[in-house]
Write a structure and sequence with these properties.
This protein is mostly beta strands. The chain contains 4 helices and 12 strands.
Length: 237
């Protein structure tokens, strides 16, 4: 998941709250301090799965499932975020320069330094050079250029188990030009090998056509909502 970092401007989705209370406040910034988040989080389309405590200005970022972008960037008061999801209080003691990642609301947080050279969480476009695209059912064909079959239901996607083979969409930071066309990503098959809460672990089942960063056999962490197809014996690969 790509952090929003800078360049976010207030929009119609800005959320501010003002309260007068003597209740303890665990964050190092005041309740009305603005934090960076995503449109999808404010609209409750996606849960908060990543929290970043910036080292430079001690600001906070609350990111969902899909790749974050400046276009989807929004600002909200810290207290507004807490009201939406009180479980973020669990990482209010996160030191500046650290990140906390989980696979579902209520799941265990994994804390790591947010240095670009550190591993952790789902693929990050800035850190890893590639990211996974989350596609909802209504975004499937004919609306998506990569997809020709309907997106599986959430029940099917959350129900995959080790041994299943699923298709994910990989987006690349460095685009490839071939025969007058620009390729920004591709879909590849992934063999599911395990899970942690609702976070899935798998190995890439084929070599990519448009990136040298990945190869068959590489391990990857992904979310059920990253799955765009589930292979069955009667539909081939």
């Amino acid at each position: 998941m790509l952090r929003l970092l800078r360049g976010v401007r207030p929009s119609a989705s800005v959320m501010f709250v003002t309260t007068e209370t003597n209740d303890p406040w665990p964050f190092d910034q005041p309740r009305n301090c603005t934090s960076i988040t995503m449109r999808q989080v404010l609209e409750r389309v996606e849960p908060i799965l990543s929290v970043y405590h910036d080292a430079d200005d001690h600001g906070w970022q609350f990111i969902g499932i899909s790749e974050a972008s400046v276009a989807d960037g929004r600002v909200a008061a810290l207290e507004a975020i807490v009201r939406m999801d009180p479980t973020v209080l669990e990482v209010a003691d996160l030191p500046p320069g650290w990140q906390a990642i989980r696979c579902k609301v209520g799941g265990e947080w994994t804390r790591t330094p947010s240095d670009p050279d550190q591993d952790g969480g789902f693929p990050d476009l800035a850190r890893d050079g590639f990211a996974l695209e989350m596609v909802e059912q209504e975004d499937g064909p004919p609306h998506h250029p990569f997809l020709r079959t309907p997106i599986p239901s959430d029940k099917e996607r959350y129900g995959v188990k080790p041994g299943n083979i699923v298709k994910l969409i990989f987006r690349y930071r460095d685009h490839v030009e071939r025969n007058g066309q620009t390729f920004t990503g591709e879909h590849m098959w992934v063999l599911v090998t395990g899970s942690e809460d609702e976070c899935l672990i798998g190995t890439i089942d084929n070599d990519p056509q448009f990136s040298h960063l990945l190869k068959a056999g590489d391990e990857i962490y992904f979310h059920p909502k990253h799955i765009v197809h589930i292979w069955r014996r009667d539909d081939g690969k």
